[in-house]
Structures are given as structure tokens and as C-alpha cells.
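Our consortium's second objective concerns turning raw sequence data into structural hypotheses that experimental partners can test. To show how far this objective has progressed, the report includes one record in full. It was chosen at random from the queue rather than selected for favorable results. The single chain below, 160 residues long, was entered without modification.
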Amino acid sequence: MRPGARVGVDIGTVRVGVAASDPGGTLAHPVTTLARDRTGDRDIERLADIVAEREAVEVVVGLPTTLAGAQGSAAAAARDYASRLSKRLSPVPVRLVDERLSTVSAERHLRASGRRGNARDRRQVVDQAAAVVFLQAALDTERATGAPPGEVVSGGDSTR
């Protein structure tokens, strides 16, 4: 397992959920939810600040994939966002990882833990929790296999 903190990013059309791991890369936890800024990239700038503050060794971005493994417009949007993020964060690597069922798992966990509140507040927490789910899965996968998970985003394109 490579040492160092990671930041997980769950990209939505309205919000960006952010999670991070401890410096040992063992446990993921929620950090914040950012508003998407489609015109000025303030969300990307804030992510850059979070990555710097945590001295993250990499950023893990969730790639929306269907249960059948197909990628549609949401995956294309995630790839575009990850590419822009990669350019901003260079030389910190950005990786795309399958986020299949992360939101469903996050919602189920929050309900089971008794999390209540209005719909807007709950959605912000769900975005963070979804980022925790796939970041933890990425950490666990690397620990089990010894290989970094997902695919690296480089040069404006993602490669496997």
C-alpha cells in the first residue's frame, strides 16, 4: 500500500462531494460538499486547496458506470471534470474509479444510522458519503491487490 492521504471526489451536476483518507491511506471520511461552478471553476480551485491542505498523494474521482458496466453521458461528464482537475492539480495524479452503487450504499448507510433532516441537507451529506464509499473501496482494493485502483487521468485524457 502506497503511503499518503487520498482525496475522493463524487461529481454531480449540482454538487461535488469530497472525502479524504488519513495519511496512512487506511480509512476514508467525509470532508465537505461543494457547489458546482460551471463557469468559473471555483469548485476545482477549492478542491486544489483541499488536496494541498491534506498533502494528498492522489485524487480519486468516481466514474458513474451502469450495473452492466456501460458508460453514458454522466461518465463522459465525470471524465471531462477529472481531466480539468488533473490539469489543475498536476503533478498530483487523478484516478477514475468505478463508483457503481456508491450513492445507493451511502443512502442506505445514512438511513440505517438514523440520519434525518430535510432533503437538501441530506443530499449534501449523501454526496460526501458516496465519496467515502468509493474512496474506501479504492483504498481496500489497493491494499488487497498491491496495485493502484482505476485508471489514471493524464494529458487531458483518461487512459487505462
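The partners drew two points from this record. The radius of gyration is 15 Å. The domain at 6-151 is CATH 3.30.420.140 (Nucleotidyltransferase; domain 5). Both points have been shared with the crystallography group to help prioritize constructs.
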